[in-house]
Amino acid sequence: MPSLIQSLNHLKTEDIPWSRLTTPYGKGTEIPDLIRERRFGEIGQLVEHQGTLWQVTPWTLLFMLRESAGKRLDELPENERWVYKAVWEAIRDVEESGQEIPEYPADPLELLREELLWAEDSDEEDESEWLAEEMRGYDPASFAAYYVYSRMLLEEAFSDDYGTNAKRSERSE
Fold it and tell me: What are the residue ranges spanned by the domains of the chain?
């Protein structure tokens, strides 16, 4: 069975509707440029905020991790490691809270279905969407998937730091 990273290997940054996915500060339109320019401080603020992961998070991680493929975590720039650490801590906080994870889409591409995406160019519609009880793309199943798929990506890329191997070494300390 291919890894999550391998199963999404066909995707290019332009295949992701960044302008229709949310961050804590709006939409993810700038993310492809930020990844290309390796502006990790700005990326970190858009993928995790106060322990919350966003629609853009798993997709951003996917493309960042492609760029660092084959490297160990400790070989990466500190500000890039900070992004991964912030996302991992948000995931761990949810796990440690004891919250039950609802069923989530079996295929991460389902998170890009039209009904989960925000409007193309409507700031007015966005405003009312932010005020809605359940924002588009933040139903319990989709929201859980941002955490689950982000975790899977980090574990696959850095198993010694975030995966099964890391759990074994934590227990033996």
Answer: 4-172
Rounded to whole angstroms, how far apart are CA atoms 104 and 85?
Answer: 23
The two tokens of residue 83 are: 């992004």
* 133-163 pLDDT, tens digit each: 567 889 999 999 999 999 999 999 999 888 7
The kind and range of the H/E element at 22 are strand 22-23
Distance CA 30, CA 51 (A): 21
Residue-wise pLDDT for 6-65, tens only, equals 999 999 999 999 999 999 998 999 999 999 999 999 999 999 999 999 999 999 999 999
Phi, psi of 99 (to 5 degrees): -60, 140
Q: Which residues face 49 on adjacent strands?
A: 52
